[in-house]
Amino acid sequence: RMRKILEIIVHCTATFPDQRVTVADITRWHKQRGWKTIGYHYVVDQDGNVFPGRPLEQAGAHCLDHNKSSIGVVYCGGLNAEGKPADTRTDAQKAALLGLLTDLKQRFPEAGIHGHRDFAKKACPCFDATSEYAAL
What we know:
- By secondary structure, the protein is α/β, with parallel strands linked by helices.
- Helix content is 23%, strand content 16%.
- A 5-stranded mixed β-sheet has the order 3-2-4-1-5.
């Protein structure tokens, strides 16, 4: 049975641009934090591949007080070479994110698209997702 989805929340992995991160890596990090499995529903790598994470039917573990009615989407990156927050999305990632978010918005038209930073004192996802995707 599908949950009621009110928000789609965009995150970054807070990793370096050339650092390859897999669903298995994120799953391992999240299990180390005591979670059942990966907290995000989708992972977008630097090449624009979109990988499934946690099933959509399950609440995520990605944004405090918002997990029950949201979908978590993460792109790999978010730190520059100096380790500072930066929009490191590749063109392929930007295209894949736009495609994924467009599809999710069609499936869940009442859901607003936001960045994690809209709900937490964090730089994540290191760009203004709310305004970038406002037209969807």
